[in-house]
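Q: Here's a chain of 415 amino acids. Please give me its 3D structure as tokens.
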Amino acid sequence: MPSAVRFGVNYTPSVGWFHHWLDFDLDSVRADLDSIAALDVDHVRVFPLWPYFQPNRTLIRERAVEDLVALVDAAGERGLDVNVDGLQGHLSSFDYVPAWTRTWHRRNLFTDPDVVEGQAAYLRTLAAALAGRPNFLGMTLGNEVNQFSAGPHPDPDRATSAQIDAWLERMLAACEEGAPGRMHLHAEYDATWYQDDQPFTPAQAARQGAVTAVHSWVFNGTAQRHGRTSVPSEHHAAYLIELSKAWADDPHRPVWLQEVGAPAPLVPAEHAAAFTEATVENALDCPDLWGVTWWCSHDVSRALADFPELEYGLGLLTNDRRPKDTARVLASAARAARDGARPAPAPRTTALAVPADPAARSACAPGGAVFDAFFRLVADGARPTTVLDTRAADTGHLAARGITEVVTPDQVPVP
């Protein structure tokens, strides 16, 4: 009997946003967690800001680590498990990297030996501090750290895919050293799946770490091209889940929909609940889904300046902790999953062949041949998955995944 799909939220503190670590108020955090627990979700993903926790390469602030432990304990008191993102990294259009990696101390985040060892020490310290907490799920290396490795970042830390391989192995090992046996992973934004020159590759995402994480945002060209109620927009999260499976060696590797949200104005506030319902429903039709973690818990306060407009209203709850319609939709889905009201999805028997060459992954991006063919299949009532073109004739691999038919993009009829 497969485990029920987990439901959670990315925790954005209602007071001070992630700057709350500077003036940590456990009572405020408890009130936030109460409002999250009322949604019947079972976990939160939390974000210590790296420069606040490790302002010097050899200084990891004990008080900051104690505050993180207090947050995890408070979540546990409310029945919430916690995943901790370490290297922040990039959040809501802002970069948070310590001064010892920038300007006069400019060093590559992925290849400089001193920086890498400093990062490893930091991740190991956080993991070790939480290793004894039963509600600690594990570490995510950081939030969308691949955005630092290539354009369109204005000042990228360039690295080869081989160098990124080594960096991922070192960081995941550090997490395991700190908290053996927990669910440690890495997570990138969708350039990993869509951008030809990204050194973070689909194979790394689907093979390194305990689970594959995908982040689904329809402001990537999907909603602009197709509209909010289109098949591609409402199935975009499901597409990324199924796309990731092409590169996985384990035919039943769990996939975590770790970030997904309803961004305005492409998804207006009055339509956010319908978009949420459709997105969740379609994601739940994907086998081997570990969980759905919505972005985000609480709105960003309008008292904070300079965020992109869409960031202020992404919360399931208002800045004063009142649930929106989107919260009620997610809570309903969480209760149904917990109560076993939904049967496990059947295997997806039709697979679309995708190029194994990472230099050709733009075919999978909005407007690409794979992307468009996948959604033509969905619009025709199919439930497609994907397979690498190099595995399209591998009968053992296909059988292990329940695939009985493989088609190429040019074999999918255009209406």
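Q: Can you summarize the key feature?
A: The mean pLDDT is 97.
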